[in-house]
Amino acid sequence: MAEMASDIEIARAARLRPIEAVAERLGVPDTALHRYGRHIAKLDLAFVDGLRDRPAGKLVLVTAINPTPAGEGKTTTTVGLGDGLNRIGRRAAICLREPSLGPCFGMKGGAAGGGHAQVVPMDSINLHFTGDFHAIGSAHNLLAALVDNHVYWGNACDLDLRRIAWRRVVDMNDRALRQIVSGLGGVANGFPREDGFDITVASEVMAVFCLSGGLAELEERLGRMIVGWTRAKQPVRAADLKAAGAMAVLLRDALMPNLVQTLEGSPAFVHGGPFANIAHGCNSVMATRTALRLADYVVTEAGFGADLGAEKFFDIKCRKAGLVPDAAVIVATVRALKMHGGLTKEELGREDPGALRKGLANLARHVGNVRKFGVPAVVALNHFASDRDGEHQLVAAYCREELGIEAIVCRHWAEGSAGITALAEAVAGLCERPPARNGRGFRLLYPDDMPLWDKMRTIATEIYGAADIIADKALRARFRELDEQGYRPLPLCVAKTQYSFSTDPNLKGAPSGHVVPIRELRVAGGAEFLVVICGEVMTMPGLPRVPAAESIRLDARGEIEGLF
Fold it and tell me: What's the half-sphere exposure (Cβ side, CA atoms, 13 Å) at 66?
């Protein structure tokens, strides 16, 4: 068998349509496009605002089992499903997050899909794209500079230097910046204090950007962000420093949704990019709402496994934006299931029905969790060349007989839309059935008025399979204090490892009865959620022993090699 071309080789060989032709498929006029070359454009905000009274299409969420080094292919499946729906005659658009430079040059690689199910131009999308992340980082760091400047010039807000909560950001994995001391060098440089950096995708500005429905809401949310606390433990917000206006100026153009295409010419909105293990893991509300008013079907994804991405998509994004998903797709692979069943990456080439059956517990937990939200679902079994028919049959039989759900083998990576039409037909069927037959009835996991500690316990016990949650006395008191200060109605954004239902990344499968340790609680006043940091998860990742950056270079023609 001939060796398959790499993702970047496939993307580079594609004949891309002019972005005007892609926009035309959605009825977007040329006058609404702000072009970034021939194949990328932003949609004018006035045009986007004019769509608000149009009826919305069907919304499909693609989520997955807990990720493993074996690969799952959630983004690839999202792209393939959008192409597949267009292939069977439904007018579909795709909504994805923008990739971060940190994973691109680290271990995970890019986030434009793979094989014959990609959004393109993949090298531009994976790198600087339209500069949105640079704008978000600049706005965030402007506020950091204004905080220090405010303190330097007299500290009229009485900010307690021990309780400044606004760290700086950079869009790169850099463990050396997690904890720093700033303001060294004498009186002219301000007051020395402990500080640190997060990766840009963990910034509250990113969350605010992705949850805002327009410029006015964006500025309002930016102003509500808490930068620290006074000596009397009162919050100091960005609006108190008169920062929101300038930050909104930096973000104005970035807020326009980005339009690109798949290898097959399907319209794709790639906009916003919070991680799901340290943030809320969904693309922008602006892009999703725009797509829903331009297409009959919108396929979107939420980061990592359903315990993180899907839960936050439902409980944060849908709650805040008033979205109602019509169907969900849970992506799994035979290889990843065998890893959850105890095999190492080196052992995945062998057939092992016992390990596969054991690993299916992870899939079963995710299927059950999605059902708790009342969303009809189907399993997409993403095909790898090393798979065996008997393994596919085992998974399909287990899903049908034990879980009451259909599992469909998908070959979109190798075959494009032709390899995923069965999944497209199944998803269309779920979306188009009458509600009574569909069993449809979207619901949230917890009500707004539930105490914050109980919300966290509900997520841990209902979604993670935990027995309970724990925190030290001071942190439990902080939960009660925030309840009393009026933060109880806010949803929770849990930061934890993506690799396990527990906080131990090495605990695969579907662990139950564990206890979830809570390490920190942060108030995201602009995003309108509380960040609960659990276990050892970091908001600034580090590079691996052998980072991908070592293999990325320009060839003799000036074209990029090694990007994946």
Answer: 30
pLDDT given at position 435: 63
Question: Quick one: tokens of 330?
Answer: 């849970």
Enter the tokens of residue 412: 């979109």
| pLDDT per residue as tens digits for the range 400-409 | 999 999 999 9
Range scoring the smallest mean pLDDT among 64-73, 107-116, 342-351: 107-116
How far apart, in whole angstroms, are the C-alpha atoms of residue 261 and residue 564? 18
- pLDDT at position 470 over 90: yes
Active-site residue, 488 included: no
State the virtual CA torsion across 302, 304, 305, 307 in degrees, nearest 10. -80
User: For 474-514, how does the pLDDT look when each residue is reduced to its tens digit (9 = 90+)?
Assistant: 999 999 999 999 999 999 999 999 999 999 999 999 999 99
Catalytic position from the list 129, 384, 479, 501 = 384
User: Is the model's pLDDT at 437 over the cut of 90?
Assistant: no
Residue 497 catalytic? no
pLDDT of residue 247: 98
Active-site residue, from 313, 314, 413, 529: 413
Whole-model pTM? 0.95
User: Is 153 in the active site?
Assistant: no
10 Å CB burial of residue 447 (0-12, 13-18, 19+) is exposed
Active site residue 276: yes
Instruction: Kindly give the pairing relationship between strand 327-332 and strand 113-114.
Output: unpaired
Q: Is 413 a catalytic residue?
A: yes
Which residue in 63, 68, 76, 262 is the catalytic one?
A: 76
Q: Which residues pair with 297 in a beta bridge?
A: 58, 92
pLDDT, tens digit (0-9, with 9 covering 90-100), for 144-154: 999 999 999 99
384 is catalytic: yes
* DSSP single-letter state for residue 282: B
| Catalytic residue (choose from 97, 289, 312, 455) | 97
d(CA 103, CA 88): 34
DSSP state of 130: T
Average pLDDT over residues 409-432: 97
Active-site hit among 229, 304, 501, 529 = 304
d(C-alpha 389, C-alpha 440), whole Å: 33
The catalytic position among 25, 42, 74, 478 is: 74
Is 23 within 8 Å of 266 (Cβ atoms)?
no
Predicted local distance difference test score (pLDDT) of residue 447: 97
E strands, 65-112, are 92-96
Which of 12, 35, 91, 108 is catalytic? The answer is 108
Q: How far apart are CA 201 and CA 495, in angstroms?
A: 13
Terminal C-alpha separation, the chain: 22
Per the rule left: phi > 0, alpha: psi between -120 and 50, beta: everything else, 513 is: left
